[in-house]
Design a protein that fits this description.
Strands 1, 4, 6, 33, 36, 38 and 40 form a seven-stranded antiparallel beta sheet that branches. Strands 7, 8, 29, 30, 31 and 32 form a six-stranded antiparallel beta sheet that branches. Strands 9, 10, 11, 12, 13 and 14 form a six-stranded antiparallel beta sheet that branches. The chain starts with 5 loop residues before the first strand and ends with a strand. The chain is mainly β and about 500 residues long.
Length: about 500
């Protein structure tokens, strides 16, 4: 098993530092979960830093190519979800005749996956297959499958699928299809919803906005991530660039190896347990110099070859994105191993008990170092495991630290934490008025110290956890911690 890696975002602070001016009105956190993905909850801070937590890479080969319609490889653009107590995956397959297919698999445990046996689309005259789209060979590139949570969505269109397509007699572009069950698809509209966008385009209904959002490819001059926001799923309108490489990415490249770096996919995700957390898992593509690619064996695509790993970005609104660091969120495996050439995050995530399961496509080949006809049964889909809410955390080391929030307003009866103190660590909480005075009965001295590792730790003061009398009242929360990682809080 590969070890978990962490990376500091904000350096350990030597003294109190006002990171942001006090808001004009209290931040309304209601009864919703709040994650530490930025400095939103740091009005004053000392000895606490924000850290990106890397997942545990299981090394499992959850899905491998072993069927004729996967004859070249299981490829990059995949989607996962938990649906009615079952895990479902729509996976990307390329055959040795260059045809490309969207296929389906299911699992009961998220580790062992069973490929569907369907009578929908034959391959080479044989049935059943796991293919669900397209119904016959045509220029096609999968994007994502999602369950449409728009309350106006008719049941027969509850499952949506986005793909790059040129249907017979139709226009090339980004199309949307619908299905009542995720298996039998029909295209929506008579023309594409969006222009051609040769990537894993991501789309979902955002309940916070009451609109759809999509993440697409933009070339300016290399690959960037654009975003569309719209009401009509069949008409996405124009995009705006929201995520890009920058000068620092380019100037730090070793020019003896690479000519450029850009972002191939976004794998944008709205984190459902919290309504103000959006996550990006962009695949970073490092372009080999042509002579380097040829020396490594690339021939046909030597001008478009290089390794890819997965990075990480965060947002509160899905529009303004920031990379907390520039380290890989998911690194490549050792040279020659099945995950050593590229990595692409699948669309979606599975929440299981106290964990988040992320799936990603890998191969030992780099982007351009392959031959569709020659190479057989390449690629795999594997799994990474992260603690619930565990993407980032507010951390204090053995010397201890503290921070105070801006004024907050909440609704709820108890304060719960997702926290890991370590064996010798602790965390105490003080509830204060807007002027930073401890509220009677809720001081640090009153707080029962938290010690342990729990995703749902209830905070109490002298044995009493009820905070309902403070509900709706602006207050500040002071977190005092030592040898602790705080992932999230919620007034539940």
């Amino acid at each position: 098993m590969k070890s978990m890696r962490r990376r500091t975002f904000v350096a350990n602070l030597a003294g109190p530092l006002l990171l942001r001016p006090a808001p004009a009105v209290a931040i309304d956190v209601g009864g919703r979960k709040q994650l530490f993905i930025d400095d939103l909850f740091f009005a004053e801070v000392q000895g606490v830093r924000l850290t990106v937590n890397r997942p545990r890479l299981t090394g499992e080969r959850c899905l491998v190519a072993d069927q004729p319609w996967e004859g070249h490889r299981i490829c990059a653009y995949n989607s996962v979800m938990e649906d009615g107590g079952e895990f479902r995956m729509w996976y990307d397959a390329i055959a040795n005749d260059r045809s490309r297919w969207l296929c389906h698999a299911t699992s009961q445990d998220g580790v062992v996956w069973r490929k569907a046996r369907l009578e929908l689309t034959p391959f080479g005259g044989r049935k059943p297959t796991s293919i669900v789209f397209p119904p016959e060979p045509m220029p096609h590139e999968p994007s994502c499958v999602f369950k449409d949570t728009n309350p106006k969505c008719p049941p027969e269109e509850r499952y949506k699928m986005v793909c790059s397509l040129r249907p017979p007699g139709g226009e090339r572009g980004t199309w949307v299809a619908a299905s009542p069950n995720g298996l039998r698809w029909k295209l929506l509209g008579s023309r594409p919803a969006f222009r051609p966008s040769d990537t894993a385009n991501i789309c979902f209904y955002d309940e916070r906005l009451g609109r759809y959002a999509a993440y697409v490819r933009v070339w300016q001059p290399q690959r960037k991530v654009g975003r569309c926001e719209f009401d009509d799923i069949t008409n996405w309108g124009a995009e705006t660039v929201v995520f890009s490489y920058d000068d620092e990415d380019q100037v730090r490249l070793d020019r003896g190896l690479f000519t450029a770096m850009d972002f191939y996919t976004s794998a944008a995700l709205k984190y459902r347990p919290a309504d103000n957390v959006y996550l990006l898992f962009p695949t970073a593509y490092y372009h080999f110099r042509e002579d380097v690619a040829r020396a490594r064996g690339a021939e046909r695509e030597a001008r478009n070859d290089g390794p890819m790993d997965i990075q990480f970005a965060v947002s509160r609104d899905g529009v303004r994105w920031r990379r907390p660091d520039r380290e890989p969120f998911i690194r490549l495996g050792k040279t020659g191993e099945f995950d050593s050439g590229y990595a692409y995050m699948a669309s979606g995530a599975i929440h299981r008990a106290d964990e988040i399961w992320l799936y990603y496509a890998v191969a030992e080949m780099t982007h351009g170092n392959y031959d569709v006809v020659r190479d057989k049964l390449k690629g795999a889909i594997t799994r990474a495991v992260l603690r619930l809410d565990g993407f980032m955390s507010a951390d204090a080391d053995y010397r201890g630290g503290w921070f105070v929030t801006p004024p907050l307003k909440f609704l709820g009866r108890q304060l719960t934490l997702n926290v890991d103190t370590g064996a010798g660590g602790h965390l105490r909480i003080e509830l204060e008025d807007e002027s930073r005075h401890a509220l009677p009965g809720y001081s640090l001295a009153d707080c029962d110290p938290v010690n342990g590792n729990s995703v749902r730790q209830v905070v109490s003061w002298r044995g009493d956890s009820d905070v309902s009398q403070l509900s709706g009242r602006p207050l500040r929360v002071r977190f005092e911690m030592r040898d602790a990682k705080l992932h999230a809080f919620q007034f539940a």
